[in-house]
Each structure stands twice: as C-alpha cells, then as structure tokens.
Amino acid sequence: MVVKRIFRLVVLLLGLWLGFDFVSYLVTEILWFQEVGDLPVFLTRIKTQLGLWAIAFGITAAFLLCNLDLAHRLKYPTDLGRVAEEQRGSWAGGQRRENYLLKESGLRLRWLLPIVLGLMLLVALMLLHYGQVVFSFWHPDLKKPLISPPLPPRFDPTSIGQLFVPELQIWQLGLVVGVAIAILWLGQFCLKAIAIALSLSFGAIVSAHWDKILPYFHPTAFNRTEPLFNRDISFYVFNLPILQLLEFWLLGLFLYGLIAVALIYLLSGDSLSQGSFPGFSLVQQRHLNGLGGGFMLSVAFSYWLQRYELLYSTRGVTYGASYTDVTAQLPTYTTLSLVSLAIAAFLLWKTVFWLPTKKAESIKIAPIFLTTFFFLLTGSYLIPALVQRLVVQPNELARERPYIERSIALTRQAFGLEDIDVETFEPDDQLNYDAITANSLTIGNIRLWDTRPLLQTNRQLQQIRLYYEFPNADIDRYTLKLEQATEKRQVILAARELDYTAVPSQAQTWVNEHLVYTHGYGFTMSPVNTVAPGGLPDYFVKNISGPTATGNGGALQTSSASIRASIPISRPRIYYGEITNTYVMAPTKVQEFDYPSGEDNVYNTYDGLGGIKISNWWQRLLFAQYLKDWQMVLTRNFTPETKLLFRRNINERVRAIAPFLRYDNDPYLVVADAEGIATRRDRITTDDQLPITNYLYWVIDAYTTSDRYPYSDPGNYEFNYIRNSVKVVIDAYNGSIFFFVADPNDPLIKTWQTIFPELFQPLSKMPVTLRSHIRYAEDFYSTQSERFLTYHMTDPQVFYNREDQWRIPQEVYGSEQQPVQPYYLIMKLPTAASEEFILLLPFTPTQRNNLIGWLAARSDGENYGKLLLYQFPKQELVFGPEQIEARINQDPVISQQISLWNRRGSRAIQGNLLVIPIERSLLYVEPLYLEAEQNSLPTLVRVIVAYENRIVMAETLEQALQVIFQPQKPPAPAIIRSVEEASS
C-alpha cells in the first residue's frame, strides 16, 4: 500500500513538473514571438502541431489499446484442458462454440519458440526505429542551413539493417534483449506500454512535419507537368510528402497491432511452459485477419506510392525514371499494389463474412495469394535486373535517350539554369593602357585583399581586447560622396562582436555573462584594392575613440571627411550577431560594458526596443525554468525596466521564426540609414537627449527548397529544387526581423505567403538604402554553378558520353590546392553599358586546364538575379587559373623571390587568383602576402599580374599594369617574365 502511494506521488510530481515545463515553454515562446512581432506565425504553428499530435496520438493509442484489450478477452485461459474438453462438446455458460474452436494442427515448441522470439525482435526493432526517428529531430541544430526534419524512412528490412550501422551498439542490443524479457515477464502490460510509446512517437513525428502538412492544404500550381504521369509538379512537392508520411504511419500502426495481438495469442494458455500452442481459435483468426487486412491495405498503398518514387530513381545513366523503371519496375509496383489490395480484401472478407465449414477449409485461397505475392515481390527485383542487363545495356543510349532529355530539362528547371543567357566571349587581345584607363572603376576595385588575411590582420590590429572577435568578413559595395561626384567602391566589412568564451575564466561569473558583457561594438571597413604603409589594410573605418569633452566618445575613426559623410555610423552596438550565444538582461542595476578606452572601460545601459520585460515574478519564474537558470529568480539586480534578450544569435533567431526556409551560411553586415524599414526602427536618446539612430543591419539570404522535384538530379545536395526567394534583415541593435520576398514567382514562397501573410513583405518595401546592398546569394550561385558543370549539356548524346563535362578549376592558396571560390567584382560586362556588382566563377573542361567560360551573376537594380554565361570558342586556347598558377610558380625569378620569403620565421602566401574580364580580354591578378609563423600579421607585399604571354610581379597593382601596358616607362623595378621564356 505504501509503495503504491509513493508511486502515485512520484507520478503526480513528475506530471506537475512536466506540465510546468510545457507551460514555461509555451508562455516564453509566445512572449518571444510577441516581442519580434510574429506572434500569429507561432500561434498558427503551435495550433497545427498540437492538433496533429492529438490526432496522431489519439488514433494510434485508441486503435492499439482497443485491439490489445480485445486480444486479452479472446486469448486462451491458462487451463487449456478445460478448453479442449469444451471443444469436444461440453460448452458451458452459453459460450459460443467458435470462440474456442481450435484448428487441428498446432505449433510445437521447436516452431513456437523461434516464431515468438522473431516477433519480439520485430517489436524491439520497431521501438528502436521509431525512437531514433523521434530523437533525430528532438533537439535540432539551429545553426544548420535547414532545421526542418526530412521525411522518416519507412520500417522495412532495409531500414532495419541501417539501425546497426556501422556497428552494433551495446545499448541497442540491450534494448532488444530487454524488450524480449519484458514481454515474456510482463506480457500485456509491456505491450500496452510499447503501444503508448509508439503512439507518442507517431504523434511527435507527425507534428514535427507541420511544415509539410500546412502547404498540403495551400498548394500553388507550378504550371509545369512531368512527362511520366502527367501531373503538375505541385503534386510531388506538396502532396507526395504527406502521402508518404501517411504511409509511414499506417505501416507502423497496423504492423505493430498485428504483431502485438499475435504475441498475446501465441503466449496465452501457458503455451511456452506447456511446450505447444494448439492453434488460433476462430475469433482469434477473425481478429488477426482484420489486422492483416489493414496491414495489406497499407502495403498496397505503399506500393502505389513507390510508383511515383520512381521519378527519383538512380538506376539509369541519369536521375529519374529510366527505361527499366518505366517498362519493368512500374508495372511490377502496380501489380504488387493490386495483389496486396486483393489480399487485403480477401482477409477483410474473411473477417466479416467467413464461416468455418469443411468445404471452406478445403479451399486454400490465402496460400495462393501469398504465393503469388511472393513471386511478384521476387520479380520486382529480378525482372528489372534482367531488363537492365539484357535489354538496356546493349543499346543504352537509344533506350535511355527520352529519359535523359527529361532529366536534363527538369534539372535545369529546378535549379534555375534554363534562364541563363549565353554569350560568346571571343578574346581579341587588344587590351592597352587606354582601355585600362577607360575601365578605371573596374581596375580600382580589383580585390587585392582576401577575407582570410584581412581577418588575421584585424585580430592583431583591431580586436583591441581578448573578448572581441571578428567571426567573419564580407565583401560589399558602397557609394562614397566625393567633392564633385560619387564613386562606387568595393569594400570588406567585418563586425567586432563580443565572444564571451574569450573572457578570462576567473571573470566568467553569472553577473558578467548576463548583465555586463552584453554586446559587441563597431566594425572595420577597408577597400579591397589599396594598401597602407607597411602592407597593411588601408582602413576606411577602424578603432574606437575614447571619451571626449564634446561627448563623442565611442565613435569609430574614419579615414576622411568623405567617408564620414558616406558611411553612417552613430553608436554601432551589436546586441544581435553571429556569435552572440548568451542571453542577457538589460537594463539592470549593473551597468553594461560598452567599449574599452585605454586602460579603462566605458559603461552603458541598453535602451533599445529588443527584449521581453521580466518585471513580474511569474515571468522570471517561467524564464528561469525555460532557460534552466534559477539565478534569475534570486538576483536583486533587476529593475522594473529590465528586459530579457535571448535567442540573440541571428542564425538561431531567423530559424526559430521560419524553420521551413533554408538559410545561407554567410550572413553579412550592412551599414545603412534604413529610414522607414518599420515602426520598430531604433530611436534612442543619449544623456543629453540627442536622438541617435542605429545603422547596423544583418542580411541573410533564405531559400525555398524541395527534394521532390521529379527527374531533377540533386547531385550531392539534400534538395533538388532551390530558389533564393527571401532576403532577411535583422536589426543588430533591436533584434527586429523582416522577411522580404525577392522571388515572387516561386510557387513555394507563394504558398508560404498564403499560410503566413503577415510574415512576408514584398522586396519593394525594403528601404532603398538597404536594397542597394542586396547581392546574388553565394550559396545559391555555388549550387547553380555546380549543377551547371554537367547540365549545360542539353544534347542527350553529348550528355550520355560526357563529351563536354566542365569543372571548377583549382588554385594555389598559401601552399595548398583548393577549388576556385566564386568572387564578387565591380566590372562592366561586355554587353553592359556601365559597371555593376557581379559574382563570377570561371570554368574549365574536365580533362584540360584552359578556360571554357565564366558565369556572371548580377546584383544591381533591375538586373538583380540574372545569370550570364560567357563561353569561349573551343578552338581557341585561353589560359585557365591552373595554367597561370603553374607559370607563376615555374618562373625562376618569381619562385626564387617567394623561396627567399619562405625562409625560417616567415612564409609567403599566394592569395586568390582572380580572372578579370575587361572588354574583350582577360587579366589575371594574384596578391602575394607575407606573414610571420608566430603572431601572424599578414602584409600585402606584391601583386602578380598576367596578361597574354607576360607575367609581372610588382609592389602595387598600378606598377604592374604600367609595366605590362607601358613597358617603355616602368615606374619602379619589377620582375617581368615572358610566358614563353619562363616555360622554355
């Protein structure tokens, strides 16, 4: 009695704790979404998730528990002798005869034991499989590009094998053995507990896929059809995932119900201790037939869906349904589905209408169905293999041609490759100094500083304190106001964030973590093409000034009046950034560290719009439970104005609001006066009541993706459809988040706009000052470029033979080979009237190193989002990056100089080799850095320029260009080598 009371008390306390935990989660999430202005998004999502969980859990639990209770009533009693006597005619108590009518043949122990153990193994494996599916998305990594869980794999022999890869874990083996022992020992109770566990798992799995279920009810037509089933693409993107999720659920539901009921019957009547099982009674057979019929219905549904999954087959020479899939596998799946349906109908008929007679028992219909099903299942593997080997392979191109055409066409559609404009670029080798002068904006923005050496230099010169960090550097363009005109300059921008993990361990207290070290401060901006004395970056914006008599302390230092007039700075505090991983409370009785001033520190109090007020005790209690931080309840440092700023990492922040989008790996900082971006724009007041405006904003590119676009080859990606549909802007001081639709023609984003109309705004609503900084997304461009290496070939025969396969060239960075990365340039395209900001990547043929073309992505104005391919004539030899690198490294004078620098204590670093198209010619530029092996401070020491058959290494780009194009007047000593001379 005491044990029961203790057990009930423990259960009650556990229930109260779990309830409190859920309430704290729900309330804090509501308050956070209310803070960022997206509460309707959360309410729609949570209502959908709770509804889906209730439906999936309720149906699963009701179905399984009702069947288990029914089996408990129909199972054999312990005294089988009484049952046998009743079977011989002594029916008592009005019990119907068929309830205990046994088949003449039963199961002996040598058959009964392996069957029971096999069924127990299946139960354990099901529990393991569905448990792993749940835990795979239980705590999603909010820094991954996409946190939405993929569709779970169905429970089949293939997935069972994957459970124990790469090796059998001890806990997995223990679970299997433990489940078997528990079923033998506890029987019905254990099976019910497993049923509850599976019900919870199905509820969690279905609710986790809310982002696939909501679009199912709001689909947008693609107005494109795939050629095999002639269905609109929207069926595969919006409907098929839900049908596959339903299949996953039904297969697990009926399979466990069938196995669990069979185990109850097989273990009843002390069959194991008696050493035999007398056979299933008539009512038991009816019950099993009903469950078997439901299971076969789900199998028929599964095979019907597998017909559509052939559109993602990898069997043939290309992606999608091949000749073998269409002519052999598709009819097999159709037949298997119909046979499964017939078996299900037969079993259900036996459940409802079948009566035991000798005539009926003599007609063995079920074995006929099962035998037919077995041969068809075998044929689904054997027949396609024979067709592939004997019919397709001897004449593969002719058989596969129409399917190759389908894959090419739909892959190009899915990755946005069909809109690439192709131009022929015929180098005329007529570049001269006059042309160089005429293209001064392009020349003046050639990138000599790579982000990696710049970040290393920043960490030495601009980090100021140990706890500051420059996590990233980004390339952008800014318009500078000169005396008589404006000038567009390409710059590298790096945010100075606060990294609390770098605070000395002795100072890592709760107060410092959450009340004092709350934000980063400022940024550096440097042009990509100029060098300060000593080979260091020539900063436009740097340092932090100390307090002054006029109260202008904390301002960032600028290099000139034109920079101060062009770059809005104000008080650049960064409360939301890439490494702001702590939650903070402000304002409090403890002042926040603002910025260092010499040996002292300057302090400040946050007065932005971000954060959730925690003035009430119940709010602090709920947040303490949510964050697992009970110091929040005990501290006396809070004031009535104190707010909690959490989820400050911008990557986690946007994923929490819109987890259905895939996000770019490289958020970039923009400095702009974004007047009118929203009513929550930051207006703060200093001590002297002067309004100061925040000018720092993060921009993140977001993508809509799908892995269900028919015939589209995903390559090594997790998706086979992608669009850069959204630009996300985050206020670095207030934390406000804005989602702007950049591609309104994308069907996926149209669907999400229908679901969350208050979340998205058109790109036209973005302030012009911010819109001038949007750029073609690098991850999107890299994905398209990689797919274009193969899918620029549109002729099926050329594609089949891979006659024109391209690749991304290699370059030497430092001393290691690496693929050339896409790079931003300000340049004038051959077909354009003026310079613009583009993203560029050169291509080379697979087996050769010469250039075959280059792909330009445009970012400015009305041309934003357009792709241009400039293809070189195949009969002309145009040097590729690897050939230029080889000639640089083989040159005896240049390589000797590099070797001298590589002596002990320092090393020379060859930077990114840039291919610069200028008019109808190509210029190759590679910076050369020198750094010490310890306390690395890279300096730009030389610039290498190659044009036609000449290679020049000089101290500056201007010197190198003058030496190449005005050799009669070299401004300074330079190393000049002819390509022919260097290679002879």
Protein structure class: alpha+beta
The percent of residues in helical segments reads 40-55%
Whole-angstrom Rg = 35 Å
Number of alpha- plus pi-helical segments: 31
Strand % is: 15-25%
Poorly predicted regions: 88-98, 100-104, 358-363, 679-692, 978-984
What is the overall shape? globular
- How many strand segments? 38
List the topology elements.
Elements: H1 2-36, H2 39-74, H3 80-87, E1 107-108, H4 109-136, H5 157-163, H6 170-186, H7 188-208, H8 210-217, H9 233-267, H10 271-274, E2 276-277, H11 282-309, H12 323-352, H13 358-362, H14 365-392, H15 396-414, E3 421-424, H16 433-438, H17 440-443, H18 451-461, E4 468-469, E5 474-481, E6 486-495, E7 497-498, H19 510-516, E8 520-521, E9 523-527, E10 541-542, E11 557-558, H20 561-566, E12 573-574, E13 584-588, E14 592-597, E15 600-604, E16 612-613, H21 617-627, H22 631-634, E17 638-645, H23 650-657, E18 662-663, E19 668-671, E20 683-685, E21 691-693, E22 696-706, E23 721-731, E24 737-741, H24 747-755, E25 760-762, H25 768-771, H26 778-791, H27 796-801, E26 806-807, E27 810-813, E28 816-819, E29 823-827, E30 836-845, E31 853-858, E32 867-871, H28 881-890, H29 892-901, E33 906-910, E34 914-918, E35 921-932, E36 939-947, E37 950-954, H30 957-965, E38 975-978, H31 979-983
